[in-house]
Amino acid sequence: GSMAARLRRPGSMAALVDASSSQQFEDLLKKAGKSLVVVHFLAPWAPQCTQMNDVMAELAKEHSQVTFVKLEAEAVPEVSEKYEISSVPTFLFFKVSMRLLRSPPLLAYCAS
Question: Which of 26, 40, 92, 105 lies 20 to 30 angstroms, CA to CA, from 79?
Answer without folding.
Answer: 105
